[in-house]
Amino acid sequence: MIYITGDTHNSEDMSNLSKANMEVCCLEQKADYGAITMAIVLGDFGLPWHTAFVARDGIHPTSSTDKKLLAWYNKKPFKVLALMGNHDNYDMLKKLPPVAMFGSTVLKVSENVFYLKRGEVYTIEEKRFLVLGGALSVDKIYRISHESWWEEEAWNATEKEALLAKIAAGERTFDYVLSHNGPTAGIASVEEYVKNGGEVMKDPVVVFNDQIDSMITYKKWFFGHWHSDSGYKNLKENKYIALYHEGVVV
Ligand SMILES: [Fe+2]
Known about the structure:
Layout: E1 2-5, H1 19-28, E2 38-41, E3 53-55, E4 58-60, H2 64-74, E5 79-82, H3 90-93, E6 98-101, E7 104-108, E8 113-116, E9 120-124, E10 127-131, H4 157-168, E11 176-179, H5 184-187, H6 191-196, H7 204-213, E12 220-223, E13 240-242, E14 247-249
Parallel strand pairs: 1-2, 2-5, 5-8, 10-11, 11-12, 12-13
Antiparallel strand pairs: 1-14, 3-4, 6-7, 7-8, 9-10
The protein binds fe (ii) ion.
């Protein structure tokens, strides 16, 4: 069973993956916490956040927060799989060793923690996932390049072309789509979007997500970034599910 939740921001929102929080969500969905084999974080996982030594077995952090957090995730009874968001250290992500998993390639943080690459299709427990990712940081002016902000938060032309070619070659049907920022149709259901009046439309990641949305078929699209659980309220009816602290089992 796969559990999907929102941004964890290094240790700031690590409680998303606490046993207590996950058990409540499982209870509400009449699911068994003990049956969870994978937990997916929809971007802004933020680990590693600090520069760390990377070996074939993953990262070896010197930052005490990263070290403790990694030890905590390594003890989980399920694998932790993270999407790439906008608050992720892309300099470190580039160094992570790729390993074959779920019919494609993932990036290894540790034996129990992996990043899913954007633009990839993964088969996890017989379900097909299209994984997207990225978003523009609205707080970019308060951040420092290569320390707390990375230009790779937005897709480059090569990445986009690779996914479009994949879709053109026939990869059009999925069980679930996972992304960090959403497509417009999903964001429209988030209360924060309505309050802020459309700023998000300037995000090229949303424009690309919309393009992909128009080309594929799937059951549900899960996304984070908005720090909103508005998608959780009508889980069954909603096609687009925004998540933050809540988790959905599939
Ligand atoms: Fe976030």
